[in-house]
Amino acid sequence: MWRCAADWLSATGWRFATTAAHGAARQQQHHVGPQKKLGLKDVQHIVAITSAKGGVGKSTTAVNVAVAMATRLGLRVGLLDADIHGPSIPTLMNLKGKPALDKAGSQALMLPKENYRVKTMSFGFFLEGDEPVVWRGPMVNNAFDKMLFGTAWGPLDVLVVDMPPGTGDAQINLGQRIPMSGAALVSTPQDVALVDVRRGAQMFLKLRVPLLGMIENMSHHTCSKCGHVERIFGAGGVERAARDYGVEVLGQVPLHVEIQTKSDAGTPVVASDPRGDLASSYIHIAERLHAGLQQLAARQPGSPKITVEP
């Protein structure tokens, strides 16, 4: 019986750093080691769904976009929950329990769980009940590495990464060490959210990660009784930010109780009501994202997205 998440992950061969210096040494060692990219060798594109701001519905967006890519566009899709401290993907995807291990290769790899045709990995799978993750940066980085590099993703067209809020270790870790195809930024229209989202955009540009576009979440609310449309969080902010960064608005998602109830139940609207208007919003975003990835690939013919070091 594993006493905690750290016990289980350590038993798979990924040891945790106990000091910042030790963690940095291990990260440098892993950076040049072949095991770092083992699980990603057949992944074509890695896309970050990010915001740098909490509470804007980023995880719900990531889940519905991933499900739309898999069920409506017919792509092979993976979903990585990169939020170690506050993982929500298991609830949103209706998945639980620790992943099994594939020990066939030189290093044991975790087998992702799957629902709605999306292969999923989250640190939430390793937590029991209300167990908190009271960890510092080096341990968080190692746990993130284990999920990203130590998962047997198999052949994927797109790996969607649900990023945690902020501009810290997880974003830098991913942006500097993995050839990411791009990042899509999620924001509500209000200025207080866009201040942080703009900082997130600047961070990815500094990391030389292309911006694929912006997603306006909670764009408006339509009264179920009278049909009046209310712009609760304002209007035009996301469009202005997109113009400033020279990217498009990939889509707008309304503020609707059905999204909340379906998310809490682990039945995302794209899966539970695939022909509905709410699902159409996410499907449109998935189509625009996929088109952007194809355009990027066309500009870089013959260059593999993921390489495996010898």
From TrEMBL:
Keywords: ATP-binding, Iron, Iron-sulfur, Metal-binding, Nucleotide-binding. GO terms for cellular component: mitochondrion. SUPFAM superfamilies: P-loop containing nucleoside triphosphate hydrolases. GO terms for molecular function: 4 iron, 4 sulfur cluster binding; ATP binding; ATP-dependent FeS chaperone activity; metal ion binding. GO terms for biological process: iron-sulfur cluster assembly; mitochondrial respiratory chain complex I assembly. InterPro entries: Mrp-like_CS, Mrp/NBP35_ATP-bd, NUBPL-like, P-loop_NTPase, YlxH/NBP35. The keyword Iron-sulfur applies. It holds the Pfam family ParA. It comes from the Eukaryota. HAMAP family: Mrp_NBP35. Belongs to the Mrp/NBP35 ATP-binding proteins family. This is Iron-sulfur cluster carrier protein. It comes from Volvox carteri f. nagariensis.
